[in-house]
């Protein structure tokens, strides 16, 4: 039985055209390409936007808590105008965080949709931290804030000229809902809602499209 290729066989002709060194180099290149693609695929599977945005959410949450502590110390918690500097601060911080996320994890490029999604997740983390602070504040640090909130609500309804019966019913309903856990839950919901609005605005300035011909392969995030 003949095991060596005959000179007239296709394999012998192929070896004549492609020397051994060239064949070895070709196989090495194929091996590198396959291994490189498998490595990139495994890296993409391991990446999670929830993990990547965790630190950013903690930063935003701590800044929000710090601002809330200042408003509490200066007795500005129930001032209606305080929401505007709070929104402005959140807008600026969220822009810086999303830009950092774009540059660090996405090689300087990010789509509008992904930026909005990352912004919402960041605000979810921040909202959880804020909710914990609100619960501790109303349940342990200053339980009298509930009564102060009801008193301010009664003053506003009196200024609007509502009947006393309607005011009493409204205050009775609010007193049932004004519990630390409920206030914390509403804080979380508000954080996510306003976070979505801010993310829609900020992402207009953060998004940056890459060149699909030059950026086909996404590089590994910077360490």
Describe the structure.
This protein is mainly alpha-helical and 223 residues long. It is built from nine helices and no strands. The protein has helices at residues 10-17, 20-46, 49-52, 54-73, 83-105, 112-141, 145-159, 164-177, 180-206. α4 packs across α6 (112-141), α6 (112-141) packs antiparallel against α9 (180-206) and α7 (145-159) runs antiparallel to α8 (164-177). The chain is elongated and about 90 Å long. It starts with 9 loop residues before the first helix and ends in a 17-residue tail after the last helix. Residues 32-45 and 212-221 have low confidence and may be disordered.
Number of helices: 9
Class by alpha and beta content: mainly alpha
Overall geometry comes to: elongated
Sheet with the most strands, sense and barrel status = none
N/C terminus separation: 59 Å
The radius of gyration over CA amounts to 30 Å
- Average pLDDT score: 81
List the uncertain runs: 32-45, 212-221
**Total count of domains:** 2
- What is the H-and-E element order? HHHHHHHHH
Number of strands: 0
Helix content: over 70%
Strand proportion, as a percent range, falls in under 5%
């Amino acid at each position: 039985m003949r095991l060596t290729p005959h000179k007239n066989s296709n394999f012998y002709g192929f070896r004549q055209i492609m020397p051994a060194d060239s064949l070895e180099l070709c196989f090495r290149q194929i091996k590198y390409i396959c291994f490189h693609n498998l490595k990139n695929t495994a890296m993409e599977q391991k990446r999670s936007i929830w993990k990547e945005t965790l630190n950013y959410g903690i930063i935003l949450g701590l800044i929000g808590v710090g601002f809330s502590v200042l408003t509490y110390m200066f007795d500005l918690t129930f001032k209606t105008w305080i929401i505007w500097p709070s929104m402005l601060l959140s807008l600026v911080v969220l822009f810086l965080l999303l830009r950092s996320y774009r540059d660090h994890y996405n090689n300087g490029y990010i789509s509008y949709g992904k930026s909005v999604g990352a912004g919402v997740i960041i605000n979810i983390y921040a909202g959880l931290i804020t909710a914990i602070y609100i619960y501790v504040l109303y349940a342990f640090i200053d339980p009298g804030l509930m009564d102060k909130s009801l008193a301010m609500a009664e003053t506003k309804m009196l200024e609007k000229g509502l009947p006393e019966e309607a005011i009493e019913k409204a205050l009775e309903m609010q007193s049932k809902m004004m519990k630390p856990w409920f206030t914390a839950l509403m804080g979380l919901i508000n954080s996510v809602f306003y976070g979505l609005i801010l993310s829609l605005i900020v992402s207009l300035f953060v998004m940056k499209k890459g060149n699909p011909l030059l950026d086909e392969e996404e590089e590994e995030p910077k360490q």
